[in-house]
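## Example pair
The file below holds two records. Each record gives the amino-acid sequence first, followed by its structure token line.
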Amino acid sequence: MELDGASAIVTGGASGLGRATARALVDGGASVVLVDLPGPRGEEAAAALGDRARFVAADVANEAEVQAAVEAASALAPLRVAVNCAGIVTANRTVGRDGPAPLDAFERTIRVNLIGTFNVTRLAAAAMAATEPVEGSVPGGPATPERGVIVSTASVAAFDGQIGQAAYSASKAAVAGMTLPIARDLSKLLIRVVTIAPGIFETPLLGTLPDSVRASLANQVPFPKRLGQPDEYASLATQIITNVMLNGETIRLDGAIRMQPR
């Protein structure tokens, strides 16, 4: 999929993995709509990316708000790319000192991380399906017509969930689990679907932790023994978009880490 002359939406685009991915897409020639919750960070992020970036405030699980973001992207250029980076992290033991985990926290995590991802995926795919296919190719390879690419974000917690991560792990495991069936659903529409499962990455959330905790987390990574960088996520997302043979797969991006129980 060629980025030049296409539009993309990136959820969670105001910071972290989403913002780095939006920058990579703009640098590749795409027009990008950043989707995030209302607030100054989204406007600031879009302004920093230049004239080919827009910010649309939306709750990813809200149908009307996401549809407005899809329409805003489609007005800039044919929508070819959607990257799902929006997500939240919660931590509650199933039964803790104060009793059973709060059900509303579990439901909210599922709503944002899973339902939000599916909501964006289905609405973006419908817009992509209405576009004319474009032919992408690699040097020496055959031309392959396609309409779009959807990249979602799971987590290594989908496979190595830690104590207190039942809600988060369930939401991310479901994102990984629906990748292949959605890719199969959309194959006749010439739309690819791939999920990235990041390990421990340098994001605003981790930035709130003490240096000692951050150093301990980095030390758990076999190699490279550091936190992942948002640009490394963006690099893989761009490779997925431009490599037509990547489809229906969840790719770990984690420096070979396997999370311990705590």
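Second record, same layout:
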Amino acid sequence: MPSDLLKLEGVHTRIGQYHILHGVDFAVPRGELTMLLGRNGAGKTTTLRTIMGLWRASAGRIELEGRDIAQLDTPAVAGLGIGYVPEAMGIFAGLTVRENLLLAARNGPLDAARLEWIFRYFEALKKFWHLPAGNLSGGQKQMLAISRAIVEPRKLVLVDEPTKGLAPSIINNLIAAFAELKKTGTTILMVEQNFHVARSLGDSVAVMDSGRIVHAGRMAQLAADQALQNRLLGLSLEAQQ
């Protein structure tokens, strides 16, 4: 088993009067894609936002390569090599596709070889390179949001429901892109509801319920055990396709 790149230990998050995360514990193995699954409202998005520093952990440790980053602000977390694709995409609608990617390239000009790699899976971005991002379709905006997070090499990419509301053909492109991204050694933590995506891409899995991790293991084991799926998620993953 590869060593863990990211580890959460006893993480609590409170947002105003609400206590959302109740001692979250799980690890993200280096070089793997870890699926974070659970019912709606289980705390998955809060977990990603807490890792990213958008919401501050009220207790616990968030370790990146052994360093506790729980109290760092978001720019500092990003500076350590963590990319983030929020569910709301977070693109700048008034800027062009090119300008959106330029803003995400913290280390200087866009790398031509990396762009060609991105265009291989997200051809629409090349086609609409000089158009405002607000003119893109929902699927194309998601492509841009993902491309912003990977336009430069990252140690870790956090992705929140990338296939939500997308057509099957676009989902297949996303699966292929993330599969290739894994081959580069990039570690990925993904929240996803589409079982086909989870089964196709996931190496390891953590399942949340009521702000806690209730199961962690290999994705293949969960995919093969419908009784475990029913116990953890309330229905078989096959029924969620």
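Notes on the second record: The chain has a mean pLDDT of 92. The radius of gyration is 17 Å.
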